[in-house]
Amino acid sequence: MKEKLEQIRREALKKLQETQDLNTLNEIRVSILGKKGELTSIMKGMKDLSPEERPQFGQMVNDVRKNIEEILNETKQALEDAALEKKLKKEVIDVTLPAKKSKIGHKHPNTIALEEIERIFIGMGYEVVEGPEVEYDYYNFEALNIPANHPAKDEQDTFYVNSDIVLRTQTSPIQVRTMEKGKLPIRMIAPGRVFRSDEVDATHSPSFHQIEGMVIDKNVTFADLKGTLQQFAKEMFGEDTKIKFRPHHFPFTEPSAEVDVSCFKCGGKGCRFCKGEGWIEILGCGMVHPHVLEMSNIDPNEYSGFAFGLGLERIALLKYEIDDMRLLYENDIRFLEQF
């Protein structure tokens, strides 16, 4: 028995010296000290010893167990230290290296311009309203005083889904939908994406954005329209900005006008930016046509209103002095980071 115990101890120490990882170390511990281990098995032979030999044998087994456990713990500690050192070397951090900077998203020029326009009109008591991009022909044309075979339909080069459904060419249908609800008075702007069959170039795109506004109330006059647009121009382009109205024609409004602002680059003196004219066209507007009010069940004898529409991209191009509309859609980070 003594020789067998000594043999178990020698073999255990040899295995412990050769082991290189904690998993193997645990397997050695179980095979020697576990419930079915070698020391446990040899203890079963005590029943064959005389009463006088049993205490001595038990002491020998305990000594061997204690010796093996001490070596096991030392080996375990050494392997853990080695594993930690290896991990630290692998995960070393060079504090002298420059830090990694997190890239934070940046607002698009269109978004910056839109938020500024919304801020201005909300400050004047307007509500921001949205509507569907796929629209009925009725709301896109007929309810805006553009009946079938009207020349304006051809001028807008519409994308038709079928004879009754189109991709909206303007955000004016939102105005009609708002009027139909019958909640008066109305003070609203309608921003959104619109679609026209245009060739892509520096100033045109088949998909772009418009912002249209409308006020419907009692005793609304052209003077109210002019005052509103004057305030918008001053807040958008600078306090010294002036506006000029030129007669025009829109089916939705009567009378109608195109609106120019004094060049904020040269102060109206004439420069390359305004092509020497001192004025820059920014939007169209007019008093809402009585027939449009009637089609939305609003009495034109009691209520009147004005409407205006501007291109978001045009405002962004002017405000940030961008000379090519295509730059807004190319997602070139070198361009976008400038705003």
TrEMBL record:
Cofactor binding annotation: Binds 2 magnesium ions per tetramer.
Statement: the UniProt record of this protein carries the keyword Protein biosynthesis: yes
GO function term, MF aspect, one: catalytic activity, acting on a protein
The protein's required cofactors: Mg(2+)
Ranges that cross the membrane: none
EC nos: 6.1.1.20
Gene Ontology CC terms, in alphabetical order: cytoplasm
Major localization listed first in the record, in broad terms: cytoplasm
Alphabetically ordered keywords of this record: Aminoacyl-tRNA synthetase, ATP-binding, Cytoplasm, Ligase, Magnesium, Metal-binding, Nucleotide-binding, Protein biosynthesis
Positions that bind Mg(2+): 254
Family the UniProt entry places it in: Belongs to the class-II aminoacyl-tRNA synthetase family. Phe-tRNA synthetase alpha subunit type 1 subfamily.
This protein's name: Phenylalanine--tRNA ligase alpha subunit
Origin species: Eubacterium oxidoreducens
Encoding gene, per UniProt annotation: pheS
